[in-house]
Write a structure and sequence with these properties.
The protein is built from seven helices and two strands; from the N terminus they run αββαααααα. The protein has 201 residues and is mostly helical. It has one domain: Arp2/3 complex 21 kDa subunit ARPC3, CATH 1.10.1760.20. A two-stranded antiparallel ribbon has the order 1-2. Helix 2 crosses helix 7, helix 4 runs antiparallel to helix 5 and helix 5 crosses helix 6. 38% of the residues are buried.
């Protein structure tokens, strides 16, 4: 019976991880539907950064990256999970392909930075905020690099300031708000888990 109980517990953990990974990949797909185009850039405002950062904050680097990898796989297989209902390999060659790759790296770096700075600042919310900022920077970096390459492929010479004006600067304010929401949700999750453990769940 002891072996069966251990197996049951392990299977429960595996099921939880699978459900969490699938859920966050679907959340990012849903967030892609909220799209606000800007007239001076091919990069729209979406809600995607919020679940991307939250996946890493709540699930850790491995599962967070796995959920984003699943999201990209669904899009590659032809499901309309990207912004504007886009899908397929050709979508990655568009102006926003770098941001999609940045989602994987951005999700995984949130908990990594949080764990790195937490002994110094001794605050999980502050550590989570630092991780979110690092994740946003990584997403911007990959997104802007790809955007520059996309312009180059079209024969358009765009400098560093031009790429930043299109791919990063317009989104800083709204993405910082998303980061604050992630910090709040992470704090609520930690509080709820603490109550559950004290109640014996």
């Amino acid at each position: 019976m002891k072996g069966e109980a251990v197996l049951e517990r392990l299977m429960g953990r595996v099921a939880y991880k699978v459900v969490a990974v699938v859920a966050f990949s679907l959340l990012v797909a849903l967030a892609a539907k909220v799209r606000i185009p800007l007239p001076w850039t091919p990069v729209p405002i979406t809600l995607q950064v919020l679940p991307v950062l939250l996946s890493g904050a709540l699930m850790g680097p491995g599962l967070g990256a796995a959920s984003m990898g699943l999201y990209l796989l669904l899009g590659l297989l032809g499901l309309p999970v990207f912004a504007e209902g886009g899908s397929g390999p050709a979508y990655f060659l568009g102006a926003t392909g770098g941001y999609l790759l940045g989602f994987v790296a951005g999700s995984s770096i949130v908990p990594w930075v949080r764990d790195l700075v937490r002994p110094l600042i001794r605050s999980r919310p502050a550590g989570t905020m630092a991780g979110c900022i690092a994740g946003i920077v990584v997403i911007y970096a990959l997104g802007c690099l790809w955007l520059w390459w996309w312009h180059l492929g079209r024969g358009e010479a765009v400098g560093l300031l031009g790429v930043l004006a299109e791919g990063a600067l317009p989104f800083i304010g709204v993405d910082m708000l998303k980061a604050m929401v992630v910090v709040g949700l992470d704090s609520v999750a930690v509080w709820a888990m603490g109550r559950g453990e004290r109640a014996g769940f």
